[in-house]
Amino acid sequence: MVRVWKRKKGQSMVEMALLLPFIVMIIFGIIDMGWYIFGYATVYQAARNGAEKAAEIPPFLNKVSPLDRTDNCVATILDATRAGTPEVMFTDIASGTNGNTFALSYPSGKRQLGEPIQIDMVYNIQPLTPFWRFITFGSQGTMRVKMATRRSIESMGDNPNSPNQFACHA
């Protein structure tokens, strides 16, 4: 005796309707996780680029706290920080807006060769997909990245094209 199974109409549509939200949630989770990893790597590299430039042309102590963004050396460090980031995606990485912060400091309190200079950055990475907007508690998918990068001062900002051969002015 051979049984013939009859296909029930609508069965696959019901199964798909039940599974689709989970499939979409997994896909959005994978996309956002990749975005967060990319964002973390971008912030890390930006802080590293800024610390590298700060070790070459360290600004004077009075330009660091509070941060004087109009100073030539500070502006050059900010430009170096932004240089490695994709222009379209992370436009406010060192701007100090939208809850993002950027700070320069001398942990030893001295601006001398061999002493450390540090960059502290906080950047809020917004989710890429709309999935997190439906969650009404917590940070709604915003990932807060805190980065501290420290380098030893290699040069005191010598620049033959600047007055008195110094790029940074007191």
Write structural notes for this entry.
With 170 residues, the protein is an alpha+beta fold. The chain has one domain (11-165). It is built from three helices and three strands. The chain has helices at residues 11-56, 61-64, 72-83, and strands at residues 101-105, 116-125, 143-152. The protein has a three-stranded antiparallel beta sheet with strand order 1-2-3, with helices on one face. The longest helix is centred in the first third of the chain and has 46 residues, at 11-56. It is rod-shaped.
- Weakly predicted, low-confidence segments: none
As a whole number of angstroms, the C-alpha radius of gyration is 25 Å
- Give the averaged pLDDT, no decimals: 84
Helix content: 25-40%
Largest sheet, in brief, is:
3 strands, antiparallel
Distance between the termini: 98 Å
In the sheet with the most strands, the strands line up as 1-2-3
Number of strands: 3
Number of helices: 3
Features:
single chain, 170 residues, alpha+beta, three-stranded antiparallel beta sheet, 3 helices, 3 strands, rod-shaped
Map the helices and strands:
Elements: H1 11-56, H2 61-64, H3 72-83, E1 101-105, E2 116-125, E3 143-152
Antiparallel strand pairs: 1-2, 2-3
Helix pairs in contact: 1-3
How would you summarize what this structure contains?
The chain is α+β, with helices and mostly antiparallel strands and 170 residues long.
